[in-house]
Write a structure and sequence with these properties.
Blueprint: E1 6-10, H1 14-26, E2 30-34, H2 37-46, E3 51-55, H3 63-73, E4 79-83, H4 88-96, E5 101-104, H5 109-131, H6 145-158, E6 164-167, H7 174-183, E7 192-196, H8 202-210, E8 211-212, E9 224-225, H9 227-230, E10 235-239, H10 246-258, E11 260-261, E12 270-271, E13 275-280, H11 284-290, H12 295-301, E14 304-307, H13 318-332, E15 339-340, H14 342-350, H15 356-370, E16 375-376, H16 402-416, H17 421-428, H18 432-441
Helix pairs in contact: 2-3, 6-7, 10-12, 13-15, 16-17, 17-18
Length: 451
Amino acid sequence: MKDPIKILIVDDDPNILEVLDARLTAANFNVLKACDAPSAIQILKKESVDLMISDMKMPAMSGMDLFSEIKKIHPELPVIFLTAYGTIPDAVCALKKGAVDYISKPFDGRLLIHKINEILANRKADMNEDTGSLIEEGFYWGKSPAMKELALTTRKVAASNVNVLILGESGVGKECIARFIHQYSSRKSHPCIVVDCGSTPTGILESELFGHMKGSFTHAMQDKKGLIEAAHKGTLFLDEIGNISGDMQSRLLRFLEDKKIRRVGAITETSVDCRVLSATNADLAAGIEEGTFRQDLYYRLKGVTLHIPALRERKEDIPALSSFFITHYTREHNLPKVELADTTLQLLKSHTWPGNIRELKNALEAGIVLCKNNKMQPSDLQLENNGGKNTPFTSNETGFSIEDSEKHTIIRALRQANGVQKTAAQLLKISRRSIHYKIQKYNIQASDYKH
């Protein structure tokens, strides 16, 4: 049985509170009452609320001031304002800033209930539209234009059977997107097999993917089905595909062309029907140019290409993402509601997030555990200085570090090359693939060094 919808009502007039309470309770809502804005804020810090109804004009703190504070605690909370004739302009201003509706006093109780039901129904539809099943994986599509476009394209792709190449930096959620595609495809009742090509040694990867026959090599004590075969009728997700060797690229290309595999040590081939999704944070185009990645394999993998933007490219999503993760982790750790200090929210927005969503999640989880009085301060996040645009490089003055020297050299080259990686690679006399790897390793943002 679902919990009843919880509505917070805020008004300094006790008569209005009683009328609202009676109306909403009769409509089977769970009602919380506050006689002023500070009381409402305290309730919101402790309780999970689905909707708030507030008077616009109240002593000490107005409805508009309350709304501004609420956006820091629960940026997605729907708010309806009750307005007298003189406060209608304020209510219209609130609508422009994100409130969902307003109703003039004296109000029609039936109209209010109708509006509430309509708002809650639309909110549920929006949640389904924006996040799909990935909310279970800790993934939030977001409201930014880039993520809305990605959500639309991903849903279209999921319904097809085309291979998909998913691009994006580490921590942006490439595996979440792959699982979403599988879940919303015609293959969802069959396995989704994930292969981490980046952490599996080449010699082992061949056996893992294609399987082997008993006695085909030392320690092959019995026949083993490979992961490609295990994905029959389902989806095969090859993560960090840019790291596979030339020999493995050839074998994988052969499978993609004829949909057949041969286990290590076997004579006969086995037909496998699976959809292939792949992902990488490497520059495959640069790899093709340098001869380290096969162009024909690239085109086989990229039936459709999805690019997940880095978190620093969609900072407007950070407040909602933070609220989402805070709610998730406070429930997971059985802790009371946690509020973000204004300075903490500013830090979250200004940080460049080299680890993207994964880094944000980990920082907030740590902050929830470490914060005092249920208010998260900047120091609770334990974020490292990640070399922002105006942060000069500082060497380790108390010791020697080869990595510091290498990072310093790369930054100098990027400054001289106006942030262009290809030019910086030429200055350093290394390949584009190498400089791309180093930039990822040291969390350097090349664009920060454009003049």
